[in-house]
Every structure is written in C-alpha cells, then in structure tokens.
C-alpha cells in the first residue's frame, strides 16, 4: 500500500516537471476551429485522454460482438445436440422394435 502511494507521488512529480518544462511552449491546433496559442502539455493530455476513450470503446464493442457470436455458437451447439439426441432415440426405438420382433 505504501509502495503504491510512493509510485503515485513519483508519477505526480514527473507530471509536474513535464508541465513545468513545457508551460512556455505554445502551438496552434485546429479542431473545427483554430486555437492559436494552445499549451503543448494540454494537447498531449487531450491526445492521451482521446486514446483512452477510443481504446475503451473498442474493448466494449469487442466484448459485445464476442458475446453475440458466443451466444450463436451455443445455440447452434444445443440445436445439434438435441438433433443428435433425437437421432439416438429413434435408433434405440428401431433397435427395440427389431429385438421385440425377433423375440416373437
């Protein structure tokens, strides 16, 4: 627990150093409007946040489609299994009929 706290503090110090070193650097950015003097550190964090959002979106969509395909596979397997059971039942009934006819 203490190690996690120390790691968090170190990361925050590195973050503060990054922002402090890049606070004077500005550049224009276009996002449906031109923003003339945008801080580089802010642009980096916005790009990072956008990457996280798109990654989570792709993961969630992947899980949804995976579950749908898995449900289809399960339904197909259950249908095949029920067909196999019906076939086995019919074969058993035929076998019983043949055995009873031999006994008569």
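Sequence proposed for the structure above (104 residues):
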């Amino acid at each position: 627990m203490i190690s996690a706290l120390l790691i968090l503090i170190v990361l925050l110090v590195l973050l503060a150093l990054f922002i402090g070193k890049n606070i004077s650097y500005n550049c224009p950015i276009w996002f449906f409007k031109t923003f003339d003097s945008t801080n580089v550190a802010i642009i980096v964090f916005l790009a990072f946040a956008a990457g996280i959002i798109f990654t989570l979106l792709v993961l969630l969509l992947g899980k949804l489609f995976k579950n749908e395909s898995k449900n289809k596979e399960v339904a197909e397997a259950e249908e095949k299994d029920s067909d196999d059971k019906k076939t086995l039942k019919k074969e058993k009934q035929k076998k019983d009929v043949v055995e009873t006819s031999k006994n008569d």
